[in-house]
Amino acid sequence: MPSQSNPCGEIRRLSKARFAAELDPPESIPGGDSLARMLAHRSHRTYAPAPVDENLLRLLFACALSAPSKSDLQQADIIDVCDKNKRRAIAELIPSMPWIEAAPVFLVFCGNNRRLRRVSAMHGEIFANDHLDAFFNAAVDAGIVLSAFIQAAEAAGLGCCPISAVRNHPGVVNDLLALPQWVFPVAGLCVGYPASAGRISERLPLEVTVHTDAFDESRFDERLRAYDERRAAAMPAADRVLWSQAKAKQYSVPQRTDFGAYVRRKGFNLR
Fold first, then answer.
1. How far is residue 195 from each of residues 2, 44, 65, 177, 234, measured CA to CA in Å?
2. 185 pLDDT exceeds 50?
3. How far is residue 75 from each of residues 83, 164, 266, measured CA to CA in Å?
4. Which of 36, 127, 210, 269 is the most exposed place for a label (fewest CB within 10 A)?
5. Which CATH architecture has domain 42-195+256-265?
6. Is residue 257 scored above 70 in pLDDT?
7. How much is the average pLDDT of 186-208?
8. pTM recorded for the entire structure
9. Distance CA 182, CA 128 (A)
10. 260 burial via Cβ count (<10 Å: 0-12, 13-18, 19+)
11. Where are the domains of the chain?
């Protein structure tokens, strides 16, 4: 957990661990503890047996759904998968991730463009934006809510692990959760009290991912090689692999090739 007495020291330590760059915040920076907590983020896949209080969970839903929403359209929904049979069915679709069934809480974050269409019909208005942006807006809203939930959960001492693999089987997940037209899964999320501290995952340097005025790939190869070496050096010898090589290998195999067809079946016009 970030130190409450010296958040700036924690920010410097954590930024160096994450980005190999020691950031130097003003000593009197407001919200230093919150910023340090964000830098300390890590995914958790094993959990203590303690349950998550229902009132706390409801508070976290409220915090997450307080996040920004495109034009106040509020196109995100959260499904708390409490039914053990449904949870097991989803876990069996993704056997490489047993934490889906083991976590105290499993949520599915959905994009919802249905509500807006119903509101349009209620007021006799034509839904005149039936194109790709309708899907995109709902997906982004759901992603923002997911991120806000994780931040709120971590502030409350919980750990999380997002599960994008629910989109590997969108039709089955759709039917298990009874998702109507124009509502679709974006990601699952395991939630619980962490069984261990976990580790900080090294990120690409800010010089690669933050640009000024225009996109800039200068020195990309050089910086990527340095990142690969830094990240590999931080891993146990048995797990040591270059990040870029692993990601290239991962995406050399077709994945979710049916997702576009699923989205079209849900009623979205992707032109």
1. 18, 8, 27, 29, 21
2. yes
3. 24, 18, 15
4. 210
5. 3-Layer(aba) Sandwich (3.40)
6. yes
7. 97
8. 0.95
9. 15
10. exposed
11. 1-40, 42-195+256-265, 206-240
Q: Residues 6 or more apart from 193 whose CB is under 8 A from it?
A: 47, 48, 50, 52, 104, 157, 158, 159
- Give the other-Cβ count within 10 Å of 11's Cβ: 24
What pLDDT is attached to residue 28?
87
Number of Cβ within 10 Å of residue 221's Cβ equals 10
Asked if residues 102 and 47 have their Cβ atoms less than 8 Å apart, the reply is: yes
Q: Residue 185 corresponds to which tokens in the numbers above?
A: 């899964």
What is the residue whose two structure tokens read 């931080």?
234
